[in-house]
């Protein structure tokens, strides 16, 4: 449930010029943590590090313009979940 609420918050700030670039990544990392904890019964520290690693991989894919290379920039859902700009 917390992951769904955080995803709703992400969708709500998707077009915000101030909050999304700076708070969106934090919300995404927390959302990943909640999502992983809901499906993965491991210690919290391991889940934190996994969520952080996935967040870094998402940022690296944004820096490398992975969505453009895969021709996925037209998909609003993919842009919402993965993001499309490195900040």
Can you characterise this structure?
There is one protein chain. The chain is mainly α. It has one domain. 72% of the residues lie in helices and 0% in strands. The chain has five helices and no strands. The protein has helices at residues 2-12, 19-39, 44-63, 66-69, 76-82. α1 packs antiparallel against α2 (19-39) and α2 packs across α3 (44-63). InterPro entries: DUF2809. It holds the Pfam family DUF2809.
| Tally of separate helices | 5
Q: Strand-residue fraction? A: under 5%
Query: What is the tally of beta strands?
Result: 0
Distance between the termini: 28 Å
Topology readout:
Layout: H1 2-12, H2 19-39, H3 44-63, H4 66-69, H5 76-82
Helix pairs in contact: 1-2, 2-3
InterPro entries: DUF2809 (IPR021257)
Summarize this, please?
With 87 residues, the chain is mainly α.
Protein traits:
87 residues, 5 helices, mainly alpha
